[in-house]
Design a protein that fits this description.
Elements: H1 3-14, H2 18-25, H3 47-58, H4 63-77, H5 79-87, H6 99-125, H7 130-143, H8 153-180, H9 184-214, H10 216-229, H11 249-258, H12 264-277, H13 288-310
Length: 329
């Protein structure tokens, strides 16, 4: 049997539990927060005063902070790409008739709120060039992405396990920075987004755990292959208007690293957490090839730590088209 058919068989085997996992990790529409919970009430008498408060508080936040917040928002707004990619995974019914398709649709609905609330907040803040942001978002969706997972559910669930924790870290750190500057509402907004990302991280981790139980050899090798490839961020094709595909991503990453929102050390920490979570060192009865894959994974964090310690981040901020010029406020 081909690897593709084996993976499809495993996905079909696990599908019986997906509905219960939806109940465990996703929140019903009537119970979960919505963007309007964190934004001025446009129907209320105090709307203009609330908008004015957002604009005043926004002046206290530095340039690099806005770059990261914009980049995080654009990443969230590229959701159509992520949904179409997950719907194409082996074992997921693209029409959405099976439980895997149901998971993707419900996950998408939760994620959709993140871009919505951040987009509206940025628009009201008066600190960013929304037209340029919209162009970048348009490009990012139109350009798509290639994260090296193809239609393989094993690699895709590894990727989402990693990436959801990375977005948790980013939103959580932004929340702390906003709180430190006295912007409690923005802090609360980013904090609750990070909470969603953590729930989703735990869900995808459980998908991987269940695959390890039924197909440990191939799951281990998929893990090794993804880490050899390196986990690519979903916004790796980020570009501003007039720029080449991916031309803005490095400067965005440098900004996030410079202010401590997401760093190369975080990348290593996530890998270590996944190794512990999935008890990679304790999995038994592996083939020789899978044992070699495990050995590679166990040694990788220390190797990546040495590399990260040699990395240098530019001290000066890059002037993005998205954000008002440095020094204006």
């Amino acid at each position: 049997m081909s690897l593709k058919n084996i993976r499809l068989e495993v996905m079909n085997h696990l599908e019986k539990d997906v509905d219960s996992l939806i109940e465990k990790y996703l929140i019903p529409v009537d119970s979960i927060w919505q963007p309007t919970d964190f934004l001025p009430n446009s129907e209320g008498e105090n709307f203009m005063e609330e908008v004015k408060e957002i604009r005043e508080l926004s002046k206290e936040l530095p340039y690099d902070f806005w770059v990261v917040l914009v980049g995080d928002m654009i990443t969230e707004e590229a959701l159509p790409t992520y949904e179409s990619w997950l719907m194409d995974v082996e074992g997921v019914d693209q029409i959405g008739r099976n439980s895997w398709g149901k998971w993707v649709r419900h996950w998408t609905a939760e994620e959709n709120r993140h871009g919505d609330v951040l987009n509206k907040y940025l628009y009201l803040s008066g600190r960013v060039n929304m037209k340029e942001i919209e162009k970048t978002t348009h490009h990012l969706i139109a350009d798509g992405f290639d994260i090296g997972t193809d239609q393989d559910p094993y690699k895709n669930f590894l990727y989402t396990s990693f990436q959801e924790l990375a977005t948790y870290i980013s939103h959580n750190r932004v929340a702390k920075l906003a709180k430190d500057k006295g912007n409690k509402q923005l802090s609360k907004m980013c904090k609750i987004i990070s909470g969603d990302e953590m729930r989703h991280h735990h869900a995808y981790c459980e998908f991987v755990e269940r695959i390890f139980k039924v197909d440990p050899n191939q799951m281990m090798m998929a893990f090794q292959q993804m880490m050899k490839l390196k986990i690519t961020m979903p916004a790796h094709f980020l570009r501003e208007s007039g720029g080449k595909i991916g031309s803005a991503f490095e400067e965005f990453s440098n900004t996030a690293q410079r202010i401590g929102v997401y760093t190369s050390k975080d990348y290593v920490d996530i890998l270590e957490k996944l190794i512990v979570r999935w008890e990679i060192d304790k999995i038994t009865n592996l083939s020789d090839e899978a044992e070699k894959a495990r050995d590679y994974l166990m040694k990788l964090p220390s190797r990546l730590t040495r590399l990260s310690e040699r990395m240098k981040v530019p001290e000066n901020s890059y002037q993005f088209k998205w954000v008002e010029p440095i020094g204006k406020y």
